[in-house]
Amino acid sequence: MTEDEKKEFEEFLEWKAEKKRKEEENKAKQEEAERQVKVNAQMPQVEEEESMEFDNKQVPYSSNNKNESNNTGEKPTTFPVAFVLLISLIIFLFCICILKDCSDNNQTSSYKTESTSNNEADKERLDSLAAIDAAETKRQDSLKRAKRIDLLKNTIKIKKAHLSSPNSAGGVDAHLVWKNVSNKTIKYLNWSGYPINAVGDPVSCEVRGTIEGGGMVTGPIKPGTTYGYGTYWDCLWYNYSAKKLVLTEINIEYMDGSSININKNELKYVR
């Protein structure tokens, strides 16, 4: 309830109480008028009775009796006024209670609305901060990834990785040709891989029973040097169905003691 509505409601209650009070006063005046008419109508009879009493030498009523009679007659006129005042007081107190309840409800509603608004603002602020953190994390990850890719591209460049045709026993040789594109001398290079058949399925060595194999290159391999032509790993697998070589990992150790590992997902950056 707004302040204007409260004011209108209070004015309505005051008007209603004033109207009721006037009605009670009019009713009291009407009853007094009727009572006065009755009293006036009885006055001749009272005078006759008093005259008769004087004639009979009886003691007339004292003035105190008249005053008591008048006072007794005036009592009903005061009762309605007191009753109206009591009713007005009750109505006034009732209105105060209603207005207080309305005020408390408005304050409670305002507090709840303000609390909800604050919670929503805090949630939006936290969501914004979380979004900023996520964006910053993503940016940092992108920078690290770009730096990693740039580092990988400056290690080696794989030119060829393939298998020879099976010999009479089914043995296949592994060939790996690559170039050192870094500015450091390579001390060792270790590679791992497995053979696949014509439909892309891995095949195992029928002699050793293994699928994955690999080899090692011993340096020094200086920057800009290409290695692998005329070099191969003899009969690394025995399987007539082996057609292609799939690399899975390369580890490089440099002469300065540093090293780098290139996993299967990163091999595409060195081809």
Search tags:
271 residues, 8 strands, alpha+beta, Immunoglobulin-like, 4-stranded antiparallel β-sheet, 53% helix, 2 domains, 2 helices
Look at the structure and give the mean pLDDT. 83
Q: What percentage of residues falls in helices of 4 or more residues? A: 40-55%
Number of helices: 2
| Broad shape | rod-shaped
Return residue spans where pLDDT drops below 50 for at least 5 consecutive residues.
54-77
Largest sheet: 4 strands, antiparallel
Class by SSE composition: alpha+beta
Span between N and C termini? 77 Å
The run of helices and strands is HHEEEEEEEE
Number of domains: 2
DSSP E strands, number: 8
- Gyration radius, in Å: 58 Å
- Share of residues in strands: 15-25%
What does this structure look like?
α1 packs antiparallel against α2. It is rod-shaped and about 160 Å long. Strands 1, 2, 5 and 6 form a four-stranded antiparallel sheet that branches. Strands 4-3-7-8 form a four-stranded antiparallel sheet, with no helix packed on it. The chain has two helices and eight strands; from the N terminus they run ααββββββββ. About 9% of the residues have low confidence.
Report a brief summary of the structure:
The protein is an alpha+beta fold.
Secondary-structure topology with pairs:
Layout: H1 3-55, H2 63-153, E1 156-163, E2 171-180, E3 186-196, E4 213-221, E5 226-227, E6 233-238, E7 244-254, E8 259-262
Antiparallel strand pairs: 1-2, 2-5, 2-6, 3-4, 3-7, 7-8
Helix pairs in contact: 1-2
